Amino acid sequence: MKLVKLGAAVVNTTPLDWDGNRARLEAALTAARAAEVSLLCLPELCISGYGCEDAFFSRAVQEMALRLLLELAPASRGLVACVGLPLLHRHGLFNSAALLCDGQVVGFVAKRFLSGDGIHYEPRWFKPWPAGEVAETDCGGARVPIGDLVFDCGGLRLGFEICEDAWVAERPGGELARRGVDVILNPSASHFAFGKIDVRERLVLEGSRAFGVSYVYANLLGNESGRAIYDGGALIAANGEMVARGPRFSFADFQLTTAVVDIDASRTARSRLSSFAPAVEDEPSAVVRCRWSVRTVAPGPPAEPRPAWDVGARRKEEEFARAEALGLFDYLRKSGAEGFVVSLSGGADSSAVTTLVRIMTELAVAELGRERFIAKLGAPPRLAAATSVAELTRGLLACAYQATENSSTTTAAAARAVAEGVGAEFFHLDVDPLVKGYLQLGAAALGRPLTWREDDLALQNIQARARAPGVWLLANVRNALLLCTSNRSEAAVGYATMDGDTAGGLAPLGGIDKAFLRRWLRWLEQEGPMGIGPMPFLAQVTSQAPTAELQPPDRHQTDERDLMPYEVLDLVERAAVRDKLGPAECLVRLRAATPEIDERQRFLWIERFFRLWCRNQWKRERYAPSFHLDDENLDPKTWCRFPILSGSFTRELTELRREILGTDA
């Protein structure tokens, strides 16, 4: 029995934050040594940060990453650890993992399979390392091996699958097992998406079982560079059994997860696999031998199960709350802002954004405590005297209800109830004089009055735009982030006023559809996240039909009357955007989902969606950054590219109209 203690540290890094990243990595190494870890896995590109974008091309960035590696190496004394960085070798840039052994850099393994889909653009910056190739590279004046390497540390053999390497069909783990590897390290930068943790667990478990190894997976943590949220969730498995799971959505700088594994048991299990065909001879240059004796330890406890919130029927609701909370917390502290401002209309979207700030405060204070919470936010002066979560929320969040003559007492009361319910500072602003002033200017310029019969859209939009300067003023005065309240469904069809309700520096809801958001608010009203509980004051929001309140009350304006039912919009959006179906195929899918609806009405909804989708790409290009949450994202900068100018599916829609309505017009 050869018992070895393995560790995986998830770390909250920031691109190009050299000193901060070094401090967090050194702290993780120190914690691992104190826990008597022999072998520690740190995340992918954690020295530079994963989200450096085109800064990876900078020679200064490449050189600084290597300098930081050499500065970090002494902190590995007493253990073996891997750490990720961009490495320039023969004029090619490689996404690499450096192995540190007792204070020395002993070699580099470069990623073989680059992630180039979804939000990832690794092939833009990095080159894939060819299988089986080994070379030497310069590392602070010393020649160090790089390539498809195996490391022998006192008889314990290590190999690497770097993030995407484990997600491909021909993953390197099989060849590593043939070469006698005992432990596979997977330094990763795997962004959060709903339910994605299940896929990661399957990859780690199956890797450990099929390859007969111990498998150590370390992910990034937090909102690293603005859009992607990393949920952490370190995993350690042995022989097809999960032996340790780390927490997800932590607000800490890092989280260390450890497990004791029996290396001899893995070797025995592998020898019993009839499919296992060992490589009976080593290529001398492909094995790096380290002078290191792995400590043997006593057996460890079994793996903790996932927390109750992570396995329940409402896991998506819980994941949304926790991912958004962590995303907001990191965006706030990394941007240097001192709080948030929300234009709170009393409707679903702005109420959801407001409650998310309260959830952020609740969860972060519960984990960090008041003092660390305030310190990590840079000690904003407004938080100095705050003691309770409600007081802390008030110090961080200001909400403004901005009334016009078309606003109702219902939404005004709902907005006040939400602000008071979460503890935010609340302002009731009358912007109607501003709206009337703009209308007078327009009428004077045009030589005629503006009327609802002739100028409906212009009259609606000026109300939304008149609200933007006031909340920007509040945000500037408070050195705060103005949070945009637009959701993904609105972005899909352009149901938002540019420079009006789209105003803001961050759009927390830009990655989530309105249909889910309404369900989430009802869940929040009645149940709420585990450890926080329900928010009953939301009943004044959930009982309303969503409305922009931009037309006179006697027109009874609602979002769904302007557009279509949100459940239909969500279905059509997924079919057209996520699944790339054309209008006729979308109609087939909608027909199957809504047998009770008239075929003419279905077609009109399909036609409306495609025309609005194509017409409003320019708006999506201008939306504030939003968090990535799933594979239905519409962000044109990271996920869903579409031409600003296009033919708008005119031929397809005309043919469909002729078939269903019997007319071309």
Structural notes for this entry:
The protein has a 7-stranded mixed beta sheet with strand order 15-14-11-10-9-8-17, covered by helices on one side. The chain is globular and about 90 Å long. It is an alpha/beta fold. The model has no long low-confidence stretch (mean pLDDT 95). Helices cover 40% and strands 18% of the residues.
List key phrases describing it.
single chain; 665 residues; 7-stranded mixed β-sheet; 6-stranded mixed β-sheet; 40% helix
Question: Would you kindly provide a brief summary of this structure?
Answer:
With 665 residues, this protein is α/β, with parallel strands linked by helices. It contains 22 helices and 21 strands. A seven-stranded mixed sheet has the order 15-14-11-10-9-8-17, with helices on one face. The protein has a six-stranded mixed sheet with strand order 5-4-3-2-1-16. A four-stranded parallel sheet has the order 20-19-18-21, sandwiched between helices.
Structural class designation:
alpha/beta
| Beta-strand content bin | 15-25%
Q: Using only CA atoms, what is the Rg?
A: 28 Å
Tell me the number of strands.
21
Ordered list of secondary-structure elements with their pairings:
Elements: E1 3-11, H1 18-34, E2 39-41, H2 59-72, E3 80-89, E4 92-101, E5 104-110, H3 122-125, E6 134-139, E7 142-147, E8 150-153, E9 156-160, H4 173-178, E10 183-187, H5 196-211, E11 214-218, E12 221-223, E13 229-231, E14 235-238, E15 241-245, E16 254-262, H6 263-271, E17 287-290, H7 315-335, E18 340-343, H8 348-368, H9 370-376, H10 389-396, E19 397-403, H11 409-422, E20 425-430, H12 432-446, H13 452-477, E21 481-483, H14 488-493, H15 514-526, H16 539-542, H17 559-562, H18 566-578, H19 583-593, H20 599-615, H21 617-622, H22 650-661
Parallel strand pairs: 1-2, 2-3, 8-17, 9-10, 10-11, 18-19, 18-21, 19-20
Antiparallel strand pairs: 1-16, 3-4, 4-5, 6-7, 8-9, 11-14, 12-13, 14-15
